[in-house]
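To the structural biology subgroup,

Please find below the input and predicted structure for Citrate synthase, which we are adding to the shared reference set this quarter. The sequence is reproduced verbatim from the submission form. If anyone notices a discrepancy with their own records, reply to this email rather than editing the shared folder directly, so we keep one authoritative version.
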Amino acid sequence: MAEAKQLSGAGLRGQVAGKTALSTVGVSGSGLTYRGYDVKDLADNCTFEEVAHLILKGELPNQQELDAYKAKLKGLRALPQALKDVLERIPADAHPMDVMRTGCSMLGNLETEESFDQQQDATDRMLALFPGMINYWYNFSHKGKRIEVETDADSIAEQFLWTLHGEKPTELHTRVMHASLVLYAEHEFNASTFTARVCASTLSDMHSCITGAIGSLRGPLHGGANEAAMELIQKMENPDHAEATLMGMLERKEKIMGFGHAIYRESDPRNAIIKGWSEKLSKEASNPALYDISVRCEAVMWREKKLFCNADFFHASAYNFMGIPTKLFTPIFVCSRLTGWAAHVMEQRSDNRIIRPSAEYVGVEFRVVPPISVR
Ligand SMILES: CC(=O)SCCNC(=O)CCNC(=O)[C@H](O)C(C)(C)COP(=O)(O)OP(=O)(O)OC[C@H]1O[C@@H](n2cnc3c(N)ncnc32)[C@H](O)[C@@H]1OP(=O)(O)O
Ligand SMILES: O=C([O-])CC(=O)C(=O)O
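Predicted structure (tokenized):
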């Protein structure tokens, strides 16, 4: 494992802002652990529902607990009519992350979390409903279709692909979606999770915490990078063109989305896993060059800048190979990270003090209001 990066300076880098029992980043195992388990171990051996159970309830489920949890989630997929009405009014050119934000907020109006006793149920409802919600909007706004979201899908991974494409996905695609959702599920005090915790610290409701977190994840410096990476690589015709494009961007000091990380120094442990799945998917894809292009980007960025792919970069080609429209990439991140966000909200609530840091004032000196006639 790479040594932890020296962390200091702006952006609260390196400052401990609270305690968590949920995950470690850049500390042990391959570099990312959820409640003590290595993310690679979890991605190789568990479904997303098992990992959601681990993150939200503290332990991996036994078979009986898993069956009960999956049955509960399957029963919570229906979209309230009032939410469908709102989704149908959002235009096709809206950003799907804005749809997620509005949808989450609307659900909070319809099924308000009245007390913290309801926090697990409120979370499970969102976990079950979000994949169908975004794909209901997508299919209605782009194809004029009102889709059925109460499918026979066995899992959240299958439910996302099924409600998007209107048919049961292949085993390989479902397996990749499970791995992807596991990889994105939790990541300590990243920007969106910290947003959720700040909101939770005011004793606000779960939907407000998650709505705020969605807003933070949307930006290209955070979750939006998978989408930005796709926009970049789809313009590249072949590996040599990819190399020339990146060299030009680096010369112009442009940021390359999907590379670098605030905490990891030499690699993001999630990258090797999703890269492996991207390679497998490329073997049956109609545009396999995207994988070789991505591999060349990785090599060039390391050679030129010692910058490595973060979790987002190979997610771009993997999702593209599964026929997922680019703008739906970051909403998938939401469907997964919801587990981490909600677990952090619960953790914050269990030992709360309002989060209220101080600022260093750099404005003008103290002064007196002059009468308006002399200003
Ligand atoms: C799931 C996730 O959210 S993972 C992150 C997804 N975000 C991205 O992929 C966006 C692209 N990456 C970045 O913008 C950054 O690497 C971040 C936001 C992830 C981390 O930011 P920081 O902690 O400030 O990065 P760091 O301190 O390592 O930056 C060091 C230098 O490398 C540069 N750098 C970092 N990442 C990149 C990049 N992707 N492309 C070009 N240059 C970069 C920085 O500009 C900085 O240069 P400077 O000192 O001249 O300003
Ligand atoms: O930890 C971070 O800053 C960003 C990140 O990788 C994540 O949230 O998954």
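Summary notes: The domain at 25-219+346-350 is CATH 1.10.580.10 (Citrate Synthase; domain 1). The chain has two domains: 25-219+346-350, 225-321.

Regards,
Lab coordination
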